[in-house]
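Researcher: Please predict.
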Amino acid sequence: MKYKLKNVDCASCAANIESSLFKSGKFKEVSVDTATNILSVDTDDIIELQRRIKIVEPDVSVEIYDMKKSDETESREKVKYELIRILLVVLIFIPGMYYRDDLHKSVFSWAEYFVFISAYLICGWGVVYKALRNLLRGKIFDEHFLMAIATAGAIAIHELPEAVAVMWFYNVGELVEGLAVRRSRKSIKSLLEIRPDSASVLKEGKIINTPPDEVRVGETIVVKPGEKIPLDGIIIEGTTFVDTYPLTGESTPRKFELDDEVFSGTINKTGLIKVKVNKPLSESSISKILDLVESASSKKAETEKFITKFAKYYTPLVVFAAIGIAVIPPLIFSGAIFEDWLYRALVILVISCPCALVISIPLGYFGGIGGASRRGILIKGSNYLDALSGLRTIIFDKTGTLTKGVFKVNEIHPANGYTDSELLELAAYAEYHSTHPIAKSILESFDKPIAVEQISSFEEISGRGIKTQINGKKVIAGNDRLLHEFNIAHPVCKVEGTVVHVAVNSLYAGYIIISDQLKDEALESMRLLQSEGVKRIKIFSGDNVSTTRNFATKLGITDYRAELLPENKLLEVEKVINSSNNKEKVGFVGDGINDAPVIARADVGIAMGAFGSDAAIESADVVIMTDNLLKLPEAIDISRRTRRIVWENIIFALVIKGLFILLGGFGLASMWEAVFADMGVAIIAILNATRVLRIK
């Protein structure tokens, strides 16, 4: 179940909720996306969930997450409120600084405290309140405590402007963080615009507007030019061009005709069409995509998990170091002044907040997933986004992945007294119940009605062919391996091209050669993959050796395996994975149906051309919503740029904070520098993370 966390003030608060729920032992699967405040947990008991959360974060409430529900209005009001607060503090702070000396020296010196404490409370009261509340509950090491204790100490040693500045910059940082997160959420929620609001259902000659989730399978819907197609279905009347960009990222509209399948979320551009619905809304393409996108951020990369653990130990360590700096030197060194060392300790406390890391890293991954989804590349989680960047070996299936999968009968070679037409008819009847592209090509070439009642049995033998009975005759149709399996004598074994052998009652009837073509972009995609750092490209195919070799040669690929059954293909992929360096990931690219086990086994399973395919959606880690191979190097490029931005933030934040902690310890950094090292670094890191949203 997914829940929305309300009133979460900081990324570390969200991380605390995740940690607390997991440690409770009541929940096995817990994940909080700190960029969206969405909680994924294996329970539907919202009352128990709320009770557990209240223990660690009393102000946080929980509601069932609805992706359709927008919190845009609430977000805008919050931004407006924060801006007013920030500007009000500026209006008080600037005159206070200008007249500070006069206020301090005059008989009305209390006025200095009045001015700056007023500004401090306006921007910092919420932080102080939460720090006190958490302190009473034994929760010390969070950003509210660090800010409160550091600024209270600054006030105690009469550094009033610096105390106000710390809180003011903290508020500015929170505002920038909120705006960045809001922008990232919009990049994901823009996908919702492809969800149709209604469907025009044709009933008894009348068109009735109906919510898509109420339309039943088998009903007919009418889609006019310019309208979104609300549900998956088959065109039963009309021809049109459809804009598939919302699903595939392809800008060129595709032509759809009678009997073609269209998909929900795409846009009908030219002609009026009638569509027979073949899937309910819950199983439609658009629903699968939205489910994938909203669940993607719950699967965290190792970098995210590391930073969460790092922050947990880093903050207490710095706090104890600050206490040591404040107390030990005045006790040991005779000339050491307690006030000076206390100030240094307060500076270190301000610097130590891990906000920059805790929010900017998930924000970067969140943006990377959103940017990829807008290009028709669905990545199921930041862990898979990370894994894509480590791909060094990619194994391709051939048919429908590297090739167009559009087969045509090229040659017919009958034997033992059969004619061309008789051999083609036998093959067509044998392949009638198969959904394989080869079967479709034979049926298209035969182009005559099939008397289905003549087919009395049908068995598809995985990786080999078909065994059936036609008019009482035992017919097999498949590859050379199938002939050997049934001990059928045949004059030729090795045939150039994709071949279907046919035998009737154990007598060889001949073979049919079927041609396929490489995808237009296949060669260019191989070059781009190599430029992205992929060292090894392989082909594992179930087709015969000569055909596989032919296509491999055209692509410049020297490592290929042919005539592999699905189980053999799986074993071969496991061998490659076992022989690879752990840091070098192995990817498998297939069509998502026959290759589902291999896709699931690979370090990164990638389904090509798979929108609408259940097997691809379920087994793949990455789904390319079109069969365009150029999307694969693009996905790797997005993952590497995202990872680079994430590590830029990690290194930048740690180096700057480490440097200023040293400077603060030696008394060379004031509270102003500390403010930059904390919220300044956080703002820069957050702005840097949003660069991933602009990946072209």
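Model: The mean pLDDT is 83.
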